[in-house]
Specification:
12 strands; 6-stranded antiparallel beta barrel; elongated; 2 helices
Length: 286
Amino acid sequence: MNILRRFRDAIVSIVLLLVPFLVLNSHLKQPSHLNGFDRGVLKLMAPIQYLTMELADAASGVIENYIWLVDVSKENKRLQRDNTSLRYQRLSWIRDSRENLRLRRLLDFREHTRFELQGAEVITKDINEFFRVVRLRLDSGPSQRVRPGMPVIVPQGLVGQVQRTSGAYSDVLLTVDRNSAVDVIIPRNGARGMLRGTGESNRYLCRIQYLDRSNLVKVGDLVVTSGLGKRFPSSIPIGKVSRVIRTQYSLHQEAEVVPHVDFSKIEEVFIILSDPGHGTEPGNLP
């Protein structure tokens, strides 16, 4: 058994060495020099060579596809990072653009208004069911001139009035606060009344009281300050009438007013220090 096993191993080794030699030898010969044995070898090995080449091509394709997918995955991750970065840059540019536009509008308003103004930045908001007060931090300037009662405005209209001051800070009572009272007029027909805030927690709303019933008030009418009492300069926009309330036997009518100012979004305001056009300092009672 051992002798047969040795012969078998020797024969297998010889065959394994001889077959590649014969195949290589047949392949290296010119076609005109091939003999019958060479042709037999080539014919016998042709299916094996074809199968080997197909397997090699398939394996090569798998490897190449794997490498390609790895590269694509890396490229995809890089593109995702770049896309995220570009989106953040775009959002930053949009935010800066809006900020610049808002500041330009504030500067333009300040340059073209008749009032002497003191700029202030909104730093906190204290809003509850009883009060709607905005705490302001004054910009650099003559902050010592700010006194309670002075009107606070933005380009869209009246915000309220200074309620109290403490150092570089001021509390502002909003027009929508139930403790606020502003004498107003409707320019279309001269109807005059007292504007008070409703103090509602779910919306910003005011109501004009003591409107003469003989003055027909309509939805959409503009409401501005009347200037009566010199606490607020005249013609400061406040809002528009959204609803008219009339009772059958009353001598007066009431009107709900939606303010022009979006109090939830104000970031900077102006305090009216004086009205040079009328030679008055708002906030001072006669």
